């Protein structure tokens, strides 16, 4: 842990510390919606479908950034030694540390994986949050973004919850602007409700109508391009003769 968290203006907290009554009054307007059992089932189904990408995540440390506290605080299937957990609260990031969301108190190039779990929808500055998450990634590190799909019928369930909507193309632009290479963007989740997941396996509906998009991006450190050596022609001297 030592050397991982750096910078000023943050404090360490006890993980899974219950929120106070005053904090609940100031929490994001979508938090009560994310607490609903039906919504929890949908999020769990989305994360189950994200398992193939998580199984490819391995390394020493990872960071889970949740949009709010009611969202699941565990990732199934990853192969990381340590997973740090934080979420967006009324005054910034909470969880293992408290800090402004635009200044993650995490050293650069220290994370093998960053997973954004419906965090962009709740963030004050989504592009800034993506840039900060990208900064913490080590070379070849992976960032996964799970974001609600504004083109899904499921959008009608959260349209008035104070959540921001981003298409897969918009999230891809944020990731590229942060210096990451986007490798995949695929729809995950359900069409309308949690029990639709089983029905979709039997009679698949249009995939672009699923509840969320899952994007996978990586940090690539491009090295210097080696110069190509050219042979210089050597003129024949006056005393030299061919052959």
UniProtKB/TrEMBL annotation:
One of its GO terms (molecular function) is S-adenosylmethionine-dependent methyltransferase activity. InterPro entries: Methyltransf_11, SAM-dependent_MTases_sf. The keyword Cell division does not apply. It holds the Pfam family Methyltransf_11. It comes from the Bacteria. Keywords: Methyltransferase, Transferase. GO terms for biological process: methylation. This is Methyltransferase domain-containing protein. The lineage of its organism: Bacteria, Pseudomonadati, Pseudomonadota, Gammaproteobacteria, Lysobacterales.
């Amino acid at each position: 842990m030592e050397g991982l968290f750096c910078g000023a203006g943050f404090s360490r907290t006890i993980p899974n510390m219950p929120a106070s009554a005053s904090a609940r009054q100031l929490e994001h307007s979508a938090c009560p919606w994310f607490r609903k059992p039906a919504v929890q089932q949908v999020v769990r189904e989305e994360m189950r479908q994200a398992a193939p990408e998580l199984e490819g995540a391995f390394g020493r440390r990872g960071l889970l950034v949740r949009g709010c506290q009611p969202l699941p605080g565990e990732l199934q299937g990853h192969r990381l030694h340590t997973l740090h957990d934080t979420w967006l609260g009324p005054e910034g990031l909470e969880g293992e540390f408290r800090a402004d969301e635009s200044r993650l108190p995490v050293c650069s190039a220290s994370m093998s994986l960053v997973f954004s779990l419906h965090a962009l929808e709740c963030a004050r500055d989504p592009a800034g949050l993506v840039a900060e998450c990208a900064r913490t990634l080590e070379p070849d590190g992976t960032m996964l973004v799970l974001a609600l799909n504004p083109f899904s019928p499921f959008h009608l369930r959260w349209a008035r919850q104070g959540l921001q909507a981003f298409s897969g193309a918009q999230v891809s632009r944020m990731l590229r602007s942060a210096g990451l290479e986007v490798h995949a963007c695929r729809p995950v989740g359900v069409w309308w409700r949690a029990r639709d997941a089983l029905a979709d396996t039997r009679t698949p509906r249009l995939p672009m109508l699923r509840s969320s998009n899952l994007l996978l991006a990586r940090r690539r450190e491009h090295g210097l391009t080696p110069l190509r050596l050219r042979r210089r022609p050597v003129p024949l001297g006056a005393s030299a003769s061919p052959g």
